[in-house]
DNA sequence: GCAAATTACTTAGCCTGCTAACTTAACCTT
DNA sequence: AAGGTTAAGTTAGCAGGCTAAGTAATTTGC
């Protein structure tokens, strides 16, 4: 009994890691069409919702550490998708703005999202989707602290 | 209607990415206790099951690309956890073996796994665990090809 | 039996992502 | 107003992970 449960937990852990890695890989392939890497779309998404956000705001929204954001912004700046401007009222703060090229990616990337979601959730009922969502939230919550 | 479904899919996609990133992070913290990085435990695990596996076998079992494996093995070799030996019958093949230090990590790392699984699945019923497993398998399968 | 194709692995060069340690600017606090 | 603390970013250095291109050994196919 105990043995079976332990085995199942192991399988879930491994399955979870395996599935999320595969999702990421599959997604990376799609994003290559628009010359973007996984994670960068997330940053752009935040800017589509709030252009001119500060780097601290962005790293909090994205759930990543400040150095990760610094690097990513630098790269997107090198690609010509965003620009950085120092905040007028607080010289410590840097705000990130979309360029025209960065804004133009919104629709193509949303299209990639839609396709990816459709592919990933194919054949899964509405009820199961709700359950999956609930379980993910619970796991997410279990990992707090 | 359509709008709601689209939003939910977006949330699942984002939630999934968020939760798996958090799992990885939380897990990385635990593994730091034994001076190991996420992914390296997976390689060691394969060797505990099959010491002396070839690199191609390992990269297939782990679902990663050969260069990823080359790098990881190199690092574990530098740490003194594994050694590499050329195969006698086929000079192209490299086999990976555990050192004593590498074997010794089996129990501590299994303990970390158990704790992590317990924490992650806390409060989730047996039925829900089965559902989660089924959904993960389905998503995994959807992403094939 | 020898050239061509395949296999196993490596190298180089990107990327995300992390921690630790640092800089600079702003804010308290006495 | 000087000195310490906090806050926002950066730099350096290390991981995993990828693709593209290269090397060397083994098969295959004529």
Compact description:
The structure is a homodimer of 145-residue chains. Chain A has 145 residues and is mainly α.
Explain the overall architecture.
The first copy, chain A, has 145 residues and is mainly alpha-helical. Chain A has a domain at 37-104: Orthogonal Bundle (Arc Repressor Mutant, subunit A). Chain A has seven helices and two strands. Chain A has a two-stranded antiparallel ribbon. In chain A, helix 3 packs across helix 4 (66-78). The two termini of chain A are 30 Å apart. Chains A and B meet through helix 1, helix 6 and helix 7 of A and helix 1, helix 6 and helix 7 of B. The structure holds a DNA duplex (30 and 30 nucleotides).
Q: Which helices and strands, and how do they pair?
A:
Two copies of one chain form a homodimer.
Chain A (H helix, E strand, L loop, with lengths): L1 H30 L8 H10 L5 H8 L3 H13 L3 E5 L7 E5 L1 H4 L2 H15 L5 H17 L3
Antiparallel strand pairs in A: 1-2
The first copy, chain A, binds a DNA duplex (30 and 30 nucleotides) through α1 and α4.
Pairing-aware structural class of the strands and helices of chain A? mainly alpha
Q: How do the strands of the widest beta sheet of chain A line up side by side?
A: 1-2
Please count the helical segments of chain A: 7
**Could you tell me the mean pLDDT of chain A?**
89
Distance between the termini of chain A: 30 Å
Percent helix of chain A, as a range, is 55-70%
Secondary structure: number of strands of chain A: 2
Biggest interface, chains and residues, is: A-B, 47 and 47 residues
- Overall geometry of chain A comes to globular
Task: Give start-end ranges of low-pLDDT stretches of chain A.
Answer: 1-7
Work out the oligomeric state of the chains in this entry: homodimer
CATH class of the domain at 37-104 in chain A: Mainly Alpha
CA gyration radius of chain A, whole angstroms: 19 Å
Amount of beta strand of chain A? 5-15%
Give the SSE string of chain A.
HHHHEEHHH
């Amino acid at each position: 009994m105990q043995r079976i449960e332990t085995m199942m937990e192991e399988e879930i852990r491994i399955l979870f890691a395996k599935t999320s890695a595969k999702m990421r890989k599959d997604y990376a392939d799609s994003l290559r069409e628009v010359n973007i890497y996984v994670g960068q779309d997330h940053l752009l998404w935040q800017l589509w919702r709030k252009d001119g956000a500060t780097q601290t705001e962005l790293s909090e929204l994205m759930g990543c550490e400040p150095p990760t954001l610094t690097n990513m912004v630098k790269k997107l700046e090198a690609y010509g998708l965003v620009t950085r401007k120092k905040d007028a009222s607080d010289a410590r703060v840097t705000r990130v703005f979309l360029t025209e090229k960065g804004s133009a990616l919104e629709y193509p990337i949303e299209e990639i999202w839609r396709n990816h979601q459709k592919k990933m959730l194919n054949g899964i009922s509405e009820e199961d989707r709700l359950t999956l969502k609930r379980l993910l939230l619970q796991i997410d919550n279990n990992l707090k602290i």
